[in-house]
Write a structure and sequence with these properties.
The protein is an alpha+beta fold and 196 residues long. It contains three helices and ten strands; from the N terminus they run ααββββββββββα.
Amino acid sequence: MNSLESRLRPSRIWYAVGVALIVAGVVGGPFWLVRNLIPLSSSGESFLAPCEITFSLESPGRYVLWHEAETFFEGTWYSSSPELPHGTTIKVLNHQRGDELILTSSLGTTESVGRATKHSICSFWVEKAGEYTIEISGLESPRVFSLRESIAKTVLLTLIQGGMIFLMGGLGGAGLIVYTALKRNKTKERLELHRG
């Protein structure tokens, strides 16, 4: 290494740090998304319908009912059309008040993990923790459904966090590389001026 190079500041090590930050952002952002979103798709409790099944819901909030059109459940593979047959009836009953909850048609969200696919059917709002009964009738053959608390806020937060990791790593690393190059260039010009 020549004497000029040894006196240049900041050190070339900062290029490596910048590249490491870029790699951390490019890899870390998607890794964060996969690590946090994949487990969410398998959350909830699956059950077979037609049925009348009672759930003990532990917290207030919005709950989503899913039709698992392609899924493995209790040792059997179930495969059916994503659409429910005409005449299918779904009710959710509140045990505390003895009334029927209002069901809101979902936006038709689909989730797939491997060969398994499920489609959101409807959602309902639970004001208090307690027991709620889901009644599903009018099906021509057994189908798998599942119930879980809405994860929309969690998904949004995870997407923002993953994006921040990606941007902070990528832009931070690129910025550090540019800053290092500019500072080294200025130092080199100043040293050459003094030497000349």
